[in-house]
Amino acid sequence: MIQSIARQTIRQNPDPQGFINAFSGRLRTISEVHVLLADRDWSGVQLYEVIGAQFGPDFLTNPRQAVIEGDDIFLPADHALGLGLILHELTTNAGKYGAWTDGQGLVELTWTLIEGGDRGIDMCWKERNGPRVTSPEDVGLGVKLIERSLAKILESQVNLKFDPDGVTARIWLPLPPL
Questions:
Q1: Confidence of residue 16 (pLDDT cuts 50, 70, 90)
Q2: Which residue range or ranges hold the Signal transduction histidine kinase HWE region domain (predicted)?
Q3: What is the dihedral of CA 122, 29, 58, 100, to 10 degrees?
Q4: To pair with 49 at 20 to 30 A between CA atoms, which of 30, 35, 79, 100?
Q5: For the chain, how many structural domains are there in total?
Q6: What CATH number is given to the structural domain containing 170?
Q7: What angle separates helix 77-96 from helix 16-38, to the nearest 10 degrees?
Q8: Residue 169 sits in which domain range?
């Protein structure tokens, strides 16, 4: 997985410094989630821990231009790793191009747990009050990771929209039965 991300990152960032910046962020995300999982013998982690790895440890008590709402949910290892990569790309893009670029924008990350036969997490990332958004002409690796990092393993779905008022990502993450 790391070799694949490295190869894809260098294709998108042939400049050495650009590659180092992009790849080190992705590698750090994988490492942070792996540390969380290793501390629990790879049994899984809580959703808030995965979010905290990307938003910072004090994201609940001292949020940085963010509103986070939803119940804490136990995530199996594959779910935590894939969602960590998605959140890394979304937070990185919000800082580079979106809601967090000017100090005025806001990211709302909300979710609900759906129980029953189609048990899963219905999550929404919504940016607002940031700079005007346009759809990228070229789809980069970050967008591909957001849209595909969970889909092949977990049959998840991510619907990413570049609305003029802000980026929105709807994420459906199926969970195993209890």
A1: confident
A2: 1-72
A3: -80
A4: 100
A5: 1
A6: 3.30.565.10
A7: 140
A8: 2-174
